[in-house]
Protein 1
Amino acid sequence: MERLRLLCVWMAATVMLGIAAPIGWSQQARNNSRPLELSRAVRPWEFLPITGTRAGLLGNESGHMEAWVYPLKIFREFHLKFHTEGRVLPAEALARTVTVRPESATILYAGDTFTVRETFFVPVGEQGAIVILDVETEQPVEIEAVFHRDFQLEWPAALGATYLDWAAAQHAFYFGEEQRKFSALVGSPTATEAHPEFQTNYSESQESSFRLGPTAKGKERKLIVIAGSMEGRAAAEKTYQHLTGAYADLLRESAEYYRDYLGKTVIVELPDGQLQQAYDWARVSVLQGMVSNPYLGTGLVAGYRTSGESQRPGFAWFFGRDSFWTSFGLNAAGDFSSARTALVFIAKYQREDGKIPHEISQGANFVDWFKGYPYPYASADATPLYIIAVNDYVIESGDTAFVKEKWDSLWKAYEFLRSTYDEHGFAKNAGVGHGWVEGGPLLPVKTELYQTGLGIEALRALSNLARVIGKEDVSSELSQNFDKQKPLMNEAFWIAEKKRFAFALDKDNHAVDEPSVLATVPMWFGLLDEAKADAMISQLAAMDHQTDWGMRIISEHSPKFSGGGYHFGSVWPLFTGWAAAGEYRYHRSFPAYANLRANALLALDGSLGHVTEVLSGANYQSLSTSSPHQIWSAAMVVSPLLRGMFGLRSDATKGTLTFAPHPPADWTSFSITSVPVGSAKLDLHYSKDPGEIKLEVSVTGDASRTIDFQPAVSLRAKVLGVEFNGKSVPFHVDSNGIDQHVITKIAVGGATNTLRIRIQNDFGLSYSSTLPAIGATSQGLRILSETWTPARDRLTINASGLAGSQYKLSVWGAEQIAAVEGARLSKAEDGKTELIVGLPKNGPEGTSSVAISIHFAKANQR
C-alpha cells in the first residue's frame, strides 16, 4: 500500500511537471524513477533549502528566503504579500502545506478566495534561481514581492559601497557596487510598481518591493527571477534572460539530473519504507553539498542554514574532515566522481608542511585566509582522515592512478602526522589542533582516542596505497608500525575495572575516564579488540548515552553533561552514524539498527529530506545554532546502511565484493542493485525462509567478479549445506558471542547466479524505533546485551526503557520457543508472533530495566 501511495503521488507530480510517469514499479526501481517527494503541514520555523552547485535559496517554511550566488549574498527577508479585496495579507499567515522535491520546494498559501503555489527552484548549474507562482482565484489578487538588499560577499570577505536601481528594461532591480564587477538582478517579466529602499534625513526603509500585476478570476502563472554575476552587469543580464526564458526546461533538466543520479548510484529496495525513503533523500542531500566557487574550484561544503543579517550561511564553505567523512558515503554509494572531486579540492590547499586544511571560506580568495586567520588548519584530524579517505576511494573505485598522482601529497601528510606523535607513537591533539572536540569541559587533553585511532588507521591506509604503486618496502614498514600501534592503543585507553575505553589521555598519559561515543570511530575501522568493543557498546547502548534521536557525545549522568553543550552533551547524527557502523562491525545489531533508523527518521522530519547537524541531548529538537541541512549527517544514513547493516565493501583493485549483511530478523527479502565492482555492476537480491537463505546475483559488465558472502544467522542456527547454481560449494562458519556468519566465496558472471544456504533453527528478534514528539524525551526500548548458554538452549536479553511502558518485538523462529520469562508471546493481527515486553513502573529517573529469558525446545536435527 505504501508503494502504491508513493507511486500515485509521483504520477501526479510528474503530470504537473510534464515528465513521463514510469510504467511499473519494477521498471521504476531499475531506472530509479522512484518518487522523491515529501509533504506536510507547514512548520514556519523549519529550514527550507533549495540549492544548486552555484546558487542557493535558504529560508524557512513560511516562505522567507535569502538568495546566494556563490560567494555572493544578494538579499534576505524575501517574502510575499497578497493584495486582494482592499486588504494586504502577509503570505506567511496563509502558508498551509510544504512539498519538497530534490530540485524544488513548493509552499501552498490558501486565502478565503484564492490559492497560490510558490515553487522555489535553483537550476543545478546556473548562477541564479526562479520563483514560480501559480495563482488560482475567485477575486482579483495581486502578489507583491518584498526583500531586503544584502549585497555582500560571504564571510570574511566584504564589498565596499553597494547600491540598488530599478532597471526598467528588465523589469527588475539591479544590484551593483563601485567596481562594477559584482552584479545581480531580481525581478519579473510582469513586475510593476517598484518601491526601492530609501534613506533620508527624516525617514528610511530597508525594504524593497515590486508587484507582479493583478490576476483576475481564474488561473495564472507569475515568475520571479534572480540572477547574479561576478563578471559585471552584462553577464548578470544574460543569466537573467536565460532563466526567464528557459525556466521550464531547466526545471525538467534538474529533475532529470537527480533521477539520473539516483539511478546510477547504488539502489536499495527495503521492507522498511522509512529507511528506504531516507536513503534516497540522503544521497540527494549529500550531492547538494557539491558547490562550484568561481575563484576556488568545486568541492564539498559542510552544510546550510540561513545567515540572517550576517554573511555566514551555516557551514556553506569547504571543510576538510567533513569532506572526508562524507566521501566514505559517496564511495559506498558508487559516486566515485564526487568523492574524487572533494579529495582533489581539499588536497589543493594542503599546507607546505603537509597539514591538511580544516576549513576554507567561500570568500577565502578575497582575504589573507590561509595566513591571517586561525581557522584554515585548526584541526588535527583532517590530516589522517585525508590518507584514510584516499585509500577508501582507491580501493572502492580502482583508480590506482590517483595514488601516483597524489603520492607526494600523501607522504607529506604522513610526515606531518608523524611529527605529531607522542612517546607512544600516538598522534597528538595538544599543540597540533583539535580532534573531534573543539572546546568545552572535556578539554584539555593530550590525545583523544578518536585522534589516536585515526592516526593508526592512517598507517594501514598508507601501507595499502604504497603497495598499490609498488613501494613494497614502504608498505611493509607502515604495516609493521600499524601492527605495533593497534594493541598499544587497546591497552593504553582501556579502563579494565570499568570495562570501557577512555575518552582521551591527559598530559601525564592518564586515562580520562569519560565514556564517549567517539570510541565508535576506531570501531568503524575494526581497530578495537572484540571483547572490549562489545563491553563498550553495552554501555553506549544504555539510555544515558543513546537517545531515540541518536547518540549523545557523553553520558547524561556525567557532571560535564549539558543537553545544549555543542561538544559536551548534544546529539550529532555524525556520532549516531559512527555508532551504527561500528556496532554492526562488532555484530551488535540492536543498537546499530536503532541508531541507523534514528538518522533515517531525522531525514523525514525537521528540514524535509535533510539531516540536521546537531540536536539537544536533553529532548528531541535541533539546537538553535544547528545547520539543518548538514552534508556529513546525510552521509551517515548512507554509510551505516551500506557498510554497516549490509557489510558491503568493494575492492575494485581485486575484483571482489564482500557482502556481510545483518538485516533485522523480520526482513525476509531486500535488494541492492547497481553495486559497482571495478567496471562491472552487480545486482543482489537476498531472501530467506525458515529453511533457507538465498542470494540471487546478476552482473552487468565484461568480467566475472568474486563475492565473499557472509550472512549473519543466530548462534542457535545450524548450517546444513551451501549450493551455488545447483552444486555444493565449500563454506565455513565464523562464530562470535552474538551471532555467527556463514562464509563462502563464489565467482559470479552473467544474468543469473543463485546461492542457497540451507539452515535450521535460525532465530531472531527485531525492534523498530521511532522518534518522539518534538520537545519530548526518549521513550524507546534499548537492548543492552544478548547472552546465549553454551548449549544454545536459552537466550538472555537485558533491556531498558521508559518505566511502565510496553514494547513489541517481532519474533523469527517462534515455533522453537518453549517458555519465556520477563516477557510474553502474543499473536499480531497479521498472524505473526510478537514478544511483548512490559517494564516495571518504578525506576531511576523514569527508566526501568528487565531481564528476558527465552527457553528453547530441544532442536530437531536433520
Protein 2
Amino acid sequence: MTPATWHDRPARAALADLETSRHGLGQAEADLRLARYGANALPPPRRRSPLQRFLLQFHNVLIYVLLAAGGVTVLLGHWVDSGVIFGVTVINAIIGFIQEGKAEHALEAIRKMLSPSALVLRDGQRRVLAAEQLVPGDIVFLASGDRVPADLRLLETKNLKIEEAALTGESQAVEKQTEPVATGLPLGDRSSMAWSGTMVTYGHGIGVVIATGATTEIGRISKMLSEVQTLATPLLRQMAVFGQWLTWAILAISALAFGFGILFRDYGAGDMFIAAVSLAVAAIPEGLPAVMTIALAIGVQRMAKRNAIIRRLPAVEALGSVTVICTDKTGTLTRNEMTVQRVITADEIHEVTGVGYAPQGGFTLFGEDVPLNDHPELTDIGRVGLLCNDAELVRVGDDWELAGDPTEGALVTLAMKAGLEPAFEREALPRVDVIPFESWHRFMATLHHDHQGHGLILLKGAPERVLELCRWQRQDGENRPLDRAAWLPRLTETAAAGMRLIALAVRELDAAPTSLNFADIESGSFTLLAVAGITDPPREESARAVANCLAAGIRVVMITGDHADTALAIGRQIGLARAPHALTGADLEGMDDAHLREAACETEIFARASPEHKLHLVNALQANGEVVVMTGDGINDAPALKRADVGIAMGRKGTEAAKEAAEVVLADDDFASIAAAVEEGRTVYDNLRKAIVFILPTNGGEAAILLIAILLGLTLPITPVQILWVNMVTAVTLALALAFDPAEPDIMRRRPRDPAEPLLSGFLVWRIVFVSGLLVAGGLGMFLWETTQGASLEVARTAAVNALVMGEIAYLFNCRRLTASVLSVAGLTGNRYVWSTAVILLVFQLLFTYLPVMQTLFGTAGLETAAWGRILLFGLALFFVVEIEKLLLARRRRT
C-alpha cells in the first residue's frame, strides 16, 4: 500500500505500509525494490547534439527574415550584401549557441542537488551508500550539514531543523517533529516530513524513505519544468505577423505592377520581370532584421553593465514590454539572511539597522543613532546572544557566510554590531556546559566561568518559556521585579510585524559550578535582558526599486512559499501591500479559472504558494493579456520562471535550476537591477521602433519611385543594383546608429505599452507614408529635373540616388525623437554614432559617384556642383518639413 500522503499518518503506520521496520531492509529485499522502483535519481534530460543546438539557433522569425533577404540578394548576384546579411546571421547564431548552451541543462541542475550519499540501516547495520541505491522502506540517518537524500517520513528527531527555502520559499529553517499533522497542509507546514534536496542545519533525525527519484517532490517539480512551454516574446509575435503581412503585400504589388506594365504600358515580359523584381527588392527591408538583431545584442551589453546577464537574446526586448513583475520574496526582495531588526528591553525598544549577516549597522532610538557607551545593556544583550549560541560567521571576501542555524547567526551579527569580538568574548567567558535546545523545553542554556571564579548561566529561547523562568528584568541598569503585563503588548506587536521572537536572560552565580542541569534552570531566578525580533528583512534597495516599477506603470506581485503574515510584513515595508490580507495557496485551489484570473489582477501578495500555484498565477496573468516577469532563486520557482515571458533568476544565491530555467540572471541578486533592466529593455524597443520608422520609408520611397515610373511608363529612375546599394549602405549603417541611442529622459515615467499594440501604430504608418512621399518627391523630382535639363540617363539616376541618400541622412536626425523635436543640443549631438555614420556614408556616396570602378559596377556618373547644391537643399528641406510635422501633431494632441 502506498498512500497519497504520508505526513498525516503515524510513523508506525508508515512503516507498516512500506513493509519495513526500524531495523531497516535486508539487502536482498533492497535489491528487489531497487529493480522495482529504479535508482534514486531524476530521469536524465533528453540530450541534443552540439550541431542540433547550433541549428536551432536559426529557428527564429528574425533569422528567417534575414535568410530570406539573403536569398534574394544571392539570386540577384549581389554578393557583398549577401555576405553582410549571412555574416550577421551566423554571428547571431554563435552568440545564441554560447548564451543558450546551458539551457537544456535545467533538469541536470536539479539532479545535482540530490545528495551523493546517505547513512542507511541495512541488515541491521549502519552503512554509507550512494544515494542512488536508496529505495522506499530504507531507514536513513540525518545529521547537521547533511543533504536529505530522498523524501522521508520522520521517525525520530532531536533538535532537527531543515532549511527548505529552495523548495518551499520558507525563509527560516523548519523545526521538525515526528507526530502526524493535518491532511492537506502545504509542503512547508508538513513538519513530520523531510524533502529530498533540502539541507539539515541543526540537530539529528531518523526517517524512512517514502519516495525516491522522480516520485519525490523535487522530482515532481523536475517533471513539471520539463512540460512547461515557453512563450515567444511580444516583439517576435509582432514580427511574425508583420513579416507575413509585408511579404504578401510586396508580392501582390509586384505582381500587379508586372501585369499593369504588360497590359497597359506595352513593356516586354523580360523588362517587366526585371522591373517587378526591382520593385520587390526596393520594398523588402532586408536590413531591418540585421539591425534588430544587432540592437538586441547592444542591449545585452548595456544590461550586463547593470548586472543583468541575458541568456536569450529576445528577452532584451521583452523586458521593455513588461506590465507585471511577479517576484519571489525569500532571496529576491529579501537577502535570505535572518537579521535582528528590533531589541525590546524593559526601558526602550531599539531598532537595529543593517540587513544580513554582515556586521554593518547599529542601534537607533526614535530614529536617532544610539551611542553604545550610553547604553551598556546593549553590550550585555549581545554577549548573551553570542555565547549562548552554536553558530559561526566567517568572512569570505566581501561576504559573510554562516555555519549553523540562521536564527543563531542573526544573534552573532547582533553581538558584533554591539561592538563585541567573538573570539575574545569566548576566551574571556569560556563555556563549561550546555543544555541544547529541545522542542519540548524550548530553550538553550549555557554555563560559563569568568577568570575571577564566578559563574554565569546564559539563557535564550521562546519568550513565553523564558518569561516563566525569569523573576527579574534589567531596567535602568538594575535588576527589578519582572513586569509581565508590560512586556506582552510589545511582544504581540512585534510578532504581528512578522518577526520571530527570541528572549535573552542571564543568571549570575557567586560560585563556579562545573555542570549544568535542568534543576539549575527551573529553580533559579533569571534576569530578562531583552527580547530580539528576528526576520529576513527586505533588501535596503527593494522599496526604492518597487517604487520605480510602480512609477513606470508596472505592477509588482509577491508570490512566496512563506507564511502569509511574514509576506504581508515584508510587503508593507517595501510599499507593496495595499490590501489588508494575502491569498494563500489553499485559497487558490478552490478557484476556477475565471476567479483565478480575477484574483491575479486584484491581489498583490500570494503566500504559501507551491510551484503549481506560481505557475497557475503566471498563466492567469498572461491570459489577462499581461507581459509577465517572474523572479526567483529556488527550485520551486523554476517552472514559473520558464513559463513567464521573462524569467529572472538570482545569480549569487539562486539555485542552478532557477538560473537554467531563466532568460536573465541578476549578477548582484538585487531587485533594483530588474528596474534597470526594464529601462534598458524599453530603450532597446524605442531604438528598434526608430530603426523601423527609418528603414521602412527608405524602402517605401524606393518602391514608390519605381511604381510611379511603371504607372507613368517612364524609364526606371533607379536600377536594381543601385537599389541594393542604397539599401546596403543606409539600412546597415544609418539605421544601426539608432541602436546606440541613449534612453530618453521620460522613459521610466511612461506606462508600459499595450502587448496587443501592433508593431506599426496608426501614427507610425502615417510617418512612414509621409516620409516616403517626401523621398519620392526628392528622388523622382531630381531624376526628372536632370532629364529635362538634357543630362544623360546615368547622371539623372546618380542624382536621384544621391537625393534619396541625402534625404535619408537628414531623416536619420529626425528619427532620434519620433514625436519630440531634435532642434536642441541634445537632439542633434546626443548620439555621436549618427554623425560618424553620416560622414562615412557621404564618403561612400562620393566614391559611388566618382570612382571609375563604381561607375562601371553601378552605372553612375559624376555630378556638377549645382546638382550637389540641389541635393543638399532637398535634404535640409526634408529635415525641417518633418520637424514642422512633429510640431503640428504635438499641437493637435494638446488640443
Protein 3
Amino acid sequence: MRVTCTLTRLPRGNWSARHDSRDVGQVEAQGLTREEAIEKLKGEIRYRLELCPCTVETYQHIEISIVESPT
C-alpha cells in the first residue's frame, strides 16, 4: 500500500510527518529525525488499518511517498 505524507522540519529541529486520506483519516507523527517521524507515521497508519480484525490484511508493506513541506 502506498500513502503520501508531508514532511516538515519543526522550529526546534524535530520533524513532523502528516497524512490525510479517507481510508486512514488524519495522522501526524513527530520524531527527532526524519526517519523516526516516518517510521512512527507508518506504525500509526498500520495500526489504524488493522483496527478491524475482520480483515486478513496485515499491512506490513506500507510505502510512504514523501512531499517536503516548505518551512
